Predict the 3D structure of the following.
Amino acid sequence: MKNIQNKLFLILFFAFTFPCISFSQDSSSTDLSYEVNRVFLPISITNEKLDEAQTLNDLNHFYKSSWVKKFYSVEILTSHNGKIKKTVSKNDNITSEQKESMRTIDAGSEITVNVHYLPDNTLKQNDPKEMNFSFKVAPSEATFVGGEQQLKNYLEKNAIDKISIDNFLKHNYNLVAVKFTVNEDGKITDSEIVESSKDKNVDALLLQTISNMPNWKPSEYPNGKKVKQDYMLTFGDHRSCVVNLLNIRQFN
């Protein structure tokens, strides 16, 4: 097997587009890499994407206006000082009032969208329907103090470079995953193995490395409220179907 060469691949995204920090190790027999990814809510959006949003599809890419023959109303429910505010539009174009209501919600609260419409279909009995979805506006990302290069250096020095790739392949390991939380103070908490390498020494090394990691700059909302965020370190073959079960966002 060829000598292992470490390469750093930085993938920035926010979801819509959120950060995924990826570091790769190439070999002639398989594609092994290690990554630090955010663990996500099913639907979330950044402040930047919210500011740019013009239609419901910009808030939720699963929503399709082609489903609708006629709109009756679109309600957006937001929380302000603990009280629910409802703003209404006639179609899926977001009004300035709805945009402002979403911008000024209570930090971390959920936004609910109720769409009352007539479906676009060929059924003889075509009754009005209601579709609902909810999402949250994501805070800023927690960041490793010193940046991605320092995070790469720390992980490789304390764990990655100590793992035998030959041994990893020999035992047919697929993927190991360590979940951890960056709390409101930037400290690492609740680290745990969620996908084992089947080698207790490898699992213990990765878990210890994550648990002893230096503080991060914590995530926060525009109003300064700091919040905890979940992350996951994965090492192995990222083509594995296991990746799809980890609730992480990966953009290649």
About this structure: Residues 44-137 form one domain.
